[in-house]
Amino acid sequence: MEFLVEFPNPRRKMLRGMLHRPAGVRGRSPAVVFFHGFTGDRMESHWIFIKCARALAREGIASLRFDFYGSGESEGTFYEATLQSEIADARSAVRFMQRQKGIDPARVGLCGLSLGGCVAACVARGANAKALALWSAVAHPAILQQLSSDLGKSSPNHPGDFEYDARHISVRFLRDAAKVNPLSAIRRFTKPTRIIHPGKDETVPLSHAEDFLAASGARIKQKVIIPGADHTFTSIAWESAVIGLTVEWFQRYL
Predict the structure, then answer these.
(1) How far apart are CA 120 and CA 180, in angstroms?
(2) How many Å from the N-terminal Cα to the C-terminal Cα in the chain?
(3) Which is nearest to 182 in space by CA: 131, 239, 103, 125?
């Protein structure tokens, strides 16, 4: 069962998403909240978030996929967003999920892709998450600053900023992102953590996964490499592998 939902972020702007509920479950279900990547949305590339959410539902696990402020169908424009605002949105999403009827608030896991993995690492401890899955996760947000120098394409309507993927990107987003330290945050998170990274990620180097593993304070932690995979696991085999690993992790630890 899938339901369109909306809920406010700290600025009282509406975030929109999809709530997946497993069918035929008695009592309260465990749940997972997904966080999409930079300029992504709640479906993500080749709909991998949808496929993973439905796979979780088949195993009795609810989930929430939502768009950060300024992304997808949520209110605002991407130009207004920052990594800090996405972290605040993530906290709002977890609270929303924990308050849903039929959801066990003590059994909520987090899953983030790319910059969404950075967000997940930053909020996991404060959200009292029970387990964590990071996909192609950004451990050093300062990597985003390379975008402006690589593209060298200034935004025609926002002097000093630039254009990327048909979006106006604020230099403020890049500057403020460099101040975020997900490695420091994940040191304080002690619950089971699985770090899944592509073997041929040309966007986020494999060293980010290694740094997350080394910094993680989890008593149970694991790094898994998907051989040959690109940043968003763009093949049926790679996609199936990452979804299977994620569902199994949350089945075991939620």
Answers:
(1) 12
(2) 20
(3) 125
